[in-house]
Write a structure and sequence with these properties.
Layout lengths: L4 H50 L4 H14 L6 H13 L13
């Protein structure tokens, strides 16, 4: 009778190496990209909501609202990303006439 144990061990070892070297890093990078896309969408929605809630001349209140809502959702607050979202919306022609602090 032929003992196939060493061959099976080699195949399992090879599969484990492939999963460790390729699949796990791919899953990690994919999750990070999806999380970034989700965060960007959340920031965009919150910026639009703040603009509707506070209107003109309330930049500090709008920024505080967005930061608070991000923290409530479990995101680390990155005010640079919030400002980038505001700049993007202004560039796309959104009505941000009220201005945001430091961005007028």
């Amino acid at each position: 009778m032929i003992d196939l144990t060493p061959i099976l061990q080699a195949v399992v070892g090879l599969l484990a190496a492939l999963v460790t070297a390729w699949l796990i890093p791919w899953i990690r990078s994919r999750t990070t990209a999806q999380q970034q896309a989700t965060l960007s969408a959340v920031v965009d929605v919150l910026v639009y909501a703040a603009e509707q809630l506070y209107g003109a001349g309330q930049g500090e209140a709008k920024l505080a609202y967005v930061a608070k809502k991000l923290r409530e959702r479990g995101y680390a607050v990155d005010l640079d990303q919030v400002e980038a979202a505001v700049r993007k919306m202004i560039a796309q022609g959104a009505d941000m006439a009220g201005g945001w602090d430091g961005m007028d």
